[in-house]
Design goal:
nucleotide-binding, TCP-1-like_intermed_sf, GroEL-like_apical_dom_sf, mainly alpha, two-stranded antiparallel ribbon, ATP binding, 6 strands, Cpn60/GroEL/TCP-1, about 10% strand, single chain, 3 domains, GROEL, domain 1
């Protein structure tokens, strides 16, 4: 088909269309729901069948955009600093939502990581030597997010970890109220992809430190009190 032979009935419809040099956004498109679902299923099949990590990533992005819909957010603020802060928060929220569409969600508040601890310990039991030690260290580290959340809320981290460990499913600490509830039911959830990536990145950094002979860090600056106190020198 050539452009001069195209007719209007071949075109789709949308309430609004935003085109930039990097992407095109359609707002309230008039596509057929059946056709859209069919395309979503086709993309899912292509994701399962592809051997290329690059193609899989691009297909996952396409799936997230196609199944996620479009929303227009208008943000206002009293100052430019506040506006930038809100903008960054919204960008983080959008990225997390896209990740949730790709790989689903898990209970938030550190519960998902704590629940996975049992599987890691079971794996450690089948290992020996340094590998077993490493697995047990990972299992211990899985408690850290929940423990930090509890301490930020003014609670004893170790006590909270033991309390949540004895609960089941998605039940955990609601740090805002100090109550133990079903976190999924009240909307405290994390994108599975974000949680997985955080754990993988942490493991990567830890492995790097294990093979590093020294680490160079910035020297802490003296505070005013120490500077005027005299007597002690840095060594």
């Amino acid at each position: 088909m050539k452009l001069e032979t195209a007719t209007l009935d071949l075109l789709g419809k949308a309430k609004k269309m935003i085109i930039t040099k990097d992407e095109t956004t359609l707002v309230e498109g008039g596509g057929d729901d059946g056709d859209i679902k069919g395309r979503i299923n086709q993309i899912k099949a292509e994701i399962e069948n592809t051997d290329s990590d690059y193609d899989r990533e691009k297909l996952q992005e396409r799936l997230a955009k196609l199944s996620g819909g479009v929303a227009v957010l208008k943000v206002g603020a009293a100052t430019e600093v506040e506006l930038k802060e809100k903008k960054h928060r919204i960008e983080d929220a959008v990225s997390t939502t896209k990740a949730a569409i790709e790989e689903g969600v898990v209970p938030g508040g550190g519960v998902a990581l704590l629940r996975s601890q049992a599987a890691v310990l079971a794996c450690a039991a089948s290992l020996s030597g340094d590998e077993a030690t490493g697995a047990r260290l990972v299992a211990k580290a899985l408690e850290a997010p929940l423990k930090q959340i509890a301490e930020n809320a003014g609670m004893e981290g170790g006590v909270v970890v033991e309390r949540v460990r004895n609960l089941t499913g998605s039940n955990g600490l609601n740090a805002a109220t100090g109550e133990y509830v079903d976190l999924v039911a009240i909307g405290v959830i994390d994108a599975a992809k974000v949680t997985r990536s955080a754990l993988q990145n942490a493991a990567s950094i830890a492995a790097l430190f294990l093979t590093t002979e020294c680490v160079i860090a910035d020297k802490p600056e003296k505070d005013d009190h120490a500077a005027h106190g005299g007597g002690m020198e840095d060594y």
